[in-house]
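assembly run, all chains below
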Amino acid sequence: MWEREIEMHQSLSISPINWQELEAIAGAESVKTLEQADPKWSQAIARAMGAGLQPPQAIVFPDSAEKLAEVMTCAYKQGWRVLPCGAGSKLTWGGLIQAADLLVSTARLNRLIDHAIGDLTITAEAGVRFADLQHQLAQANQFLALDPAFAEQATLGGIVATADTGSLRQRYGGVRDMLLGISFVRADGLIAKAGGRVVKNVAGYDLMKLFTGSYGTLGIVTQMTFRVYPQSEASESVLVQGEVAALEQVRSTVLRSGLTPIAMDWLSPPLASQLTDAATTVPALLLKFQAIAPSVTLQVQRVKELAQSLQLAAIGLTGDLETQLWQQLQTHLAAANQPDQTICKVGVLPASATLWFQQLERLAPKGFGQIHAASGLGRLVFTEPVEANLLLTLRRFCQEHNGFLTVLQATPAIKQQLDPWGDVGTALSVMQLVKRQFDPNGVLSPGRFVGGI
Amino acid sequence: MLAPEKNATQRNWQPIIQEFITVLGEKGVVRRKEELLVYECDGLTSYRNRPALVVFPRSTEEVSQAIKICARHQLPFVARGSGTGLSGGALPEDDSVLIVTSRMNRILNIDLENQQVVVQPGVINNWVTQAVSGAGFYYAPDPSSQIICSIGGNVAENSGGVHCLKYGVTTNHVLGLKLVLPTGGIVDVGGSLPEMPGYDLTGLFVGSEGTLGIATEITLKILKTAESIKVLLADFTSVEAAGATVSDIIGAGIIPGGMEMMDNLSINAVEDVVQTGCYPRDAAAVLLVEVDGLAIEAEENARRVEALCYQNGARNVQMATDPEARLTLWKGRKAAFAAMGKMAPDYYVQDGVIPRTKLEYVLGEITKLGEQFGYYVANVFHAGDGNLHPLVLYDNAQPGALEQVEALGGEILKLCVKVGGSISGEHGIGADKRCYMPEMFSETDLETMQWVRQVFDPDRIANPTKIFPTPRTCGEAARSHAAEQFKEIERF
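ok done. output:
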């Protein structure tokens, strides 16, 4: 058992939810019990909180930022512990929630505010679904350069709260690099904002970075502005397989060349096997190129030549095949409706990726592992039950290579046996002070974040 | 949540100076009036204030010791790198200690395999690229002052540059920081990877303008140099045509490495000084576009950009590929600020951001404002990301000129906010623009930002009067009139 700092959360006396007050604020149809809303909420909460704790008494779906602010003002006065969420697809991610009286969902804050096509920005409310936003952007041949888990269900707010993206980090960076402005409701119910709607802006503190990946512990983001990118005219991916040492040479050569893959991922043998329908015992490198057509053709050709010179197999994929392959990869790394999957976010120094795969092969040969070759960030997924000790051993290895292992999704039993976040070093005390300043009563997502925050 | 202003006090500095000397040595402490003179201002020379003391730590530990002395005596301190900032971020506070990082100028680690470099804050921006260029890498953010500005200063201001359109500004290239907090405590934030568990304090710190502490070790991401770079210079007979070309280039899905525009006044200023011969004096605007990537891609995109320039009525498009020719085309733009010195005894530079689609309207309004106030305004513009640098030409020897010019600058900033932009794109708020923060942000917004400051610096000793408006620096009026003026427009 590991120790948490939970006194802060436990010191509050529980206040029963006042339904009439909530209904007066948000409208009667917007306040429900979890069962009334959808059975999925109760299931998710059971895993997010663990056994023996009271589930939230109600879920509220405000349809405007002002109503959400009023709900929060009310919660602040009554001392209700609040668990913010969007569509609930990642509600189980992070540490076990220590207490929650009320779920506040942004799902009905789903208006598109402004797509400034010529300025390459889009402003939308937090409950807008990622898939809907991409659809909107595609009509102008643009896209949001993120590839989050559960892309069909996930809302923008949830993606920001969990800083969740994937392979596109290679070219475009993370959620932190896309977010230009936010509006949010504070724990005390006041609405505040930071940043703006333009792509370059240094006025005031960068609260966008602070809120990105803060797991609903500092406030509830209601509106956000993202940088977007034009779609490229051509796309092709290459899957390279063979001996690890030779693959490492591919990685190193590509990163030192003028080639500009928008994604380059290491995939563990079981993951590579799933994608190719052919059993393999070695990792693979999956690269994606998007640019003008002649550039894509040339880059793919250069990778294939490089692979050939190193006796590696290289398969090019375009069109539907390419789209399907990347979708499959996403599904294997976070499948909706598979709560038994253990999902970890991992990081190691990029040049240590091959060592990491060796370690994985030795300790957990069935693990689905993905490491983004340039950043060293990635995913580790187990579809079968795992021991907490295995995760701790892998975490130690990641930490020895300047990285981390965060257990995003796992059974409550596992999360009780280890700290899902691990050690965050000397900055923890500052993080705890930030939390206390933004949420002095500790009512927002108590227990979900690092160090028991 | 605003702390009461600290008045300058009659301190007995002698024992305090002794404490600094004990920690930093005789050479690490400057206190003679003549020596303090050069530290009275940064790149914003119209604001001056003499520090009580200037200190030069050489290590994280020495910075920590120095800050602990400040904390013990409740002395405000201001961090300074090379002093090239343009918003008065390093302007000394009353009765303050200036902590200069110029002796912390070592590159601590170069890790090409993992594409990162660890530097001390006094390392000059350009040195980073020089240190890794042999291996084919570079550090992307390139402020115009890159041959003298320090990485510590870049981190404090979240500096941009002419190439940040495609590759981002400082915050997109900082992986981790070692920080000395305003209490003297030392913490590590971030690390060797772009995301680590916990709050993103690295992202919060970058751009905090010296108000949250001093970064003493900075881990930077380096990028691979592009295989091919091409620069195009197009000249237009109207600003509108140049603006339309910018929109068309972005609309065609091309993201240039950099895209810069200069107006007629700027063109003539640089031709007077550097005589490039390639900036036509009778052009209403020139557009500089740099495209990079694989040779095949740079070539194709250059060809497309050229075609778009001509489609929009460009008179002539010059193209350069080899480094020397590219430098010639860039030379005028790089010299733009300096050239203003020849046009007028003084110039005042602004740093507003606008949605790039509003360019035509905003430039028209700026011209009108210039006429109204009776000053010439030259415009240099990071066109790709909407970052406008209006340069107001004036003579500081004329009584009242600076006040008028500042008022004109303020009107320009309000205009930027009105069209949905920002009061600073890359220079920071500092001392210069703090009174305009309420144009963009509500009292609640500013209070929430101050929460962050409260966490890092509960005693308000780190650059205490910067960024945020205070009644003393801005007067009560600055606090509320924004809400009245732009009721209809969401101030975001």
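The longest helix of chain A spans residues 293-309.

Confidence is low (pLDDT under 50) at residues 1-12 of chain A.

not gonna interpret more than that til we talk
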